[in-house]
Structure formats: structure tokens, C-alpha cells
Amino acid sequence: MNNQRALVRTFGVGYVVIFVIANIIGSGVYKKIAPMAAELHSSEWILLAWVAGGIITLFGALSNAEVAGMLADTGGDFAYFKKIYNRFFAFLYGWSLFTVIQTATIASLAYVFTQSLNSIIPIPEVFPSLQDFTIGGVFFPFKDFGIKLTAILLIMILTFVNITSLRSGAGTSKAILLLVFTGLAVIVVFGLTSHVKIAAAPVALGALTPGPVTVSAFFTAMLAAFWAYQGWASVGFIGGEVKDANKNLPRGILIGVFIVIAIYLLVNFTYLKLLSIPQLEQIHAAGNQIAAVEAVRVFWGKGGVLFISLLILVTTLGCTNASILTGARPTYAMAREGMLFKGIGKLNKANVPGNSLLFQGIWSSVLVLSGSFDQLTDMLIFAVFIFYGATSLGVFILRRKMPDAHRPYKVWGYPVVPAIYILFCIGLFINTIATKPREAGIGLALILIGIPVFLILDRRKKEL
């Protein structure tokens, strides 16, 4: 209670809106329409998936905001889970951040950077004779090996920069957001005003195409949409510093998410005007193409490809660096609490968690070799929604355990909104296991490896 009152509430609803938008819009809006087209084969269903993904994201963000506002000064989901559940579940979350969620995010962003670079300067094939080499028929480490090596090089260079430097430049996030808006505006304005002809009929927003769209396919397509919406959970970190949080936090989340939904619909409508569904499916099958690049190529040729590729290059470079910088901190904090190996919890001469950064960089590089961009993002979305659902379940648990605790914000639509979100997380979990067994299996295995690690570390701590 006292700590909650001590927090300085300086942020208004405008800052919350900017914070939400800045933490959501990233690489997904440039690329994820292609795998959605491969699943749904319909323009209308693709647009509907973006809307549904946005609404579910909104439900999750509103549920998360109650927990974040209540426990704002304890520091993030790792601390939330210690309070809601126990030390073991909090460890499992932190372990998952390192093994799947944060490191796969870094690997995925580095992939998009490299694919964009490949649009400007073709990256030569490396070991083409080993393209079909497989480990157990699951991993193809040498497929697109030139792309993968370049992505690994980027990760290790940025990791080294962060190991030797205390902080990155101020204002980077705002600059990145401005660049992203610039790129999207170029695509929308020139795309919608161009008079190009595509092979398929233009997008019509009438009755939905009946086609072979199943609930399972729709869920699978939404995995792609959720990567584009990923980042909303960060709003929880400012819950205790928002003026009149009971009103401004949900308003800011609502406005921010609806703005993102509108932007995504407008941009993807433009893609669908410029590229046919078969073209988008071919882009997905190619593996190393970006939908936004191919859309701009339609109306602006090589000059447009250079412009949008450079833009994606800069934005994903900044996002990758930010993910590397922030991702090593939870692992470092866990080690400081005795919940990971001691060496990870040490600061180097530059006063940064160098060992944590190094281990994160190495593991992110291993994940690059394990699969493609879409495989990585599907795996991390599968993993992160387990914990998103757990946070929403925490709304119910905390209301029973701590009914009189101060809550600067209570989730709108309780208990319906958090209940729907929890049910959706369960549905996504089951559907991903059924439709993406490789990604789900790897994600679950990496999470569950944390159980023996916790038991070993816990036993050592008790013996000391």
C-alpha cells in the first residue's frame, strides 16, 4: 500500500496510447500476411483474422492491466507470478523467457533484418549441397544457411555492443516508431492510389468467402497476427505511474489497440489490393521474401524496394538491439536471486550483465539455425500465451486472495473479459499442438527442461 502511494503518477492517457502503439507495431505488419494467406486463402478471412486478433489482444491487455496496476512497483510478470502462484512458476516463466520467448524474438527479428538486407544485396548461398541435411527430420540447419549466418552475425555483433556499452541512445524507440509510420504511410498512400492490375479480383468486403476455412485454420492464421500484436504486455510496467489509472490506463489501452487494429487493416487491405492470394502464398513458400517489399515493388519498382528494404532494415535493427538489451535483464535478475547459475548474475567492467547477454546471444543463434522466421514466431507465441493466460487467471486468484488490496484499475467486463481470454489461450494451446506439432513440441520441451533445472538449483540452495 505504501509503495503504491509512493509511485509518482505523471503519465496521462496520451502517453499510454503512444506506449501501447510503440510496443506493438514492429516487423509483423510487414511480413505476416503471407502465412495468413497460406492458411486462409481468402482476403476477407485474412482481414477478419486481424480484427479478431486485435480484439483478443485487447482482452488480454485489459486483464493484464489489473494485475500490473495492482503490483506495479514489484517489477514485471516474473514478480507477478511469485505473488500470484509461487517461486517455481515464476522461475518457469523466467526460464521460458530465456529458452523460448525472448531469444526466439531476437532470432525472428534478426531474420527479418537479414531478409530485408537480402532484398538490397543478395546474400550468397552457403553450403548449398547441405540444404537437405536434417537432424531427425525436424531440423534443417543448413537450409538458407547464408541468410541464417548473417542473422547470427547480427545477433553476436549487437550482443558484443551491449556487453561493452552501458546504454543505447535516448529516443531510439520514438525514432523507430516514426520510421515505421513513414513506411506504412508510403505503402498505403501509393498503394491505394496506384492503378496497377493484379492477377486476382480486387478485395471485396462483402460476404465472407465460404471456402475451406476451418476454425483450426483460423486459429493457426491468428498465430501470425499475434506476432504483429506482440508487445502489448509492456504497458503493465507503467501501471503505477499513470495519472488517474482507473480511467487512463484502460482508455489508453483501448485507444492504442484500436489504432493498431485500424492501421493493420488499412495496410493489409493495401497489400491485398497490390498482391493476389496466390502471390502471397508464393511469398510464404519462398521463405526469404517480405510481403511489404513485394507490394512496394508492384507500384514503385526497384527504387521502392530499396526504400522499404532500408526502412525495414533500420526498424528491425533497432528492435533487435532493444530486445537484446532488455532480454538479458530478467535472466540476470533471476541469477541474482539464486534462481539461476551464479555466473549469469555478475556485472562486467562496463557495469552490464555481460554473461547473461553472451548466453542469450549464443542461444538466440542456435534458435536461428533451428527453423524459419514463421516457425520461430509460432513457437514463441505458443509459449508466451501459456503465461498470458496465467496472468489473466491471476485476476481471479488475486480477487479471492487479496479482495481488499488497492487496485488502481479493475478490468472492464469482469469476469467475462478475462474468462474469454483464458479460454482463448487454452484453445490456442490445443490448436497449436494439433496443427503445429513441431513448434509446439519444441516450445514445450524447452519450457519443461526448466523443471529439473529448478530442482537442481533449489537443492543446491538448500544445501548451502
Whole-number total of structural domains: 1
**Mean pLDDT metric:** 83
- Reported by name, the CATH topology is Amino acid/polyamine transporter I
Radius of gyration: 22 Å
**CATH homologous superfamily descriptor:** Amino acid/polyamine transporter I
Overall shape: globular
Helix segment tally: 18
| Quaternary class | single chain
Q: Give the % helix.
A: over 70%
Strand content: under 5%
Distance between the termini: 34 Å
CATH class: Mainly Alpha
The low-pLDDT segments are 1-7, 204-210
Please outline the major beta sheet.
Answer: none
CATH architecture: Up-down Bundle
User: What's the total count of β strands?
Assistant: 0
**Class derived from helix and strand content:** mainly alpha
SSE order? HHHHHHHHHHHHHHHHHH
Characterize the structure shown.
There is one protein chain. The chain has 464 residues and is mainly alpha-helical. The protein has a single domain, classed as Amino acid/polyamine transporter I (Up-down Bundle), CATH 1.20.1740.10. Helices cover 72% and strands 0% of the residues. The protein has 18 helices and no strands. Helix 5 packs across helix 16, helix 7 packs across helix 14 and helix 13 (291-336) packs across helix 14 (354-370). The longest helix is centred in the last third of the chain and has 46 residues, at 291-336. The two termini are 34 Å apart.
